[in-house]
Amino acid sequence: MSEHRTESRHALSDGLHAVATAEVLSRILTGQAQALAALTPAFPRITQAARAGAQALGRGGKMAYAGAGSSGLMALADCLELPGTFGIAPDRVPMLFAGGVEALLHMQGGPEDDPALAKADLVRAQLTAGDVVLCLAASGGTPYTLAVAEGAKALGVTVVGFSNVATAPLLQVADIPVFLDTGPEIITGSTRMGAGIAQKVALNMLSVLVAIDLGHVHDGFMVNVTADNAKLVGRAARIVASVSGAGQEAARAALTQTNGAVKPAILVARGMTAAQADQALATTGGHLAPLLTDQK
Question: Which of 176, 75, 86, 69 shows the shortest CA–CA distance to 132?
Answer without folding.
Answer: 176
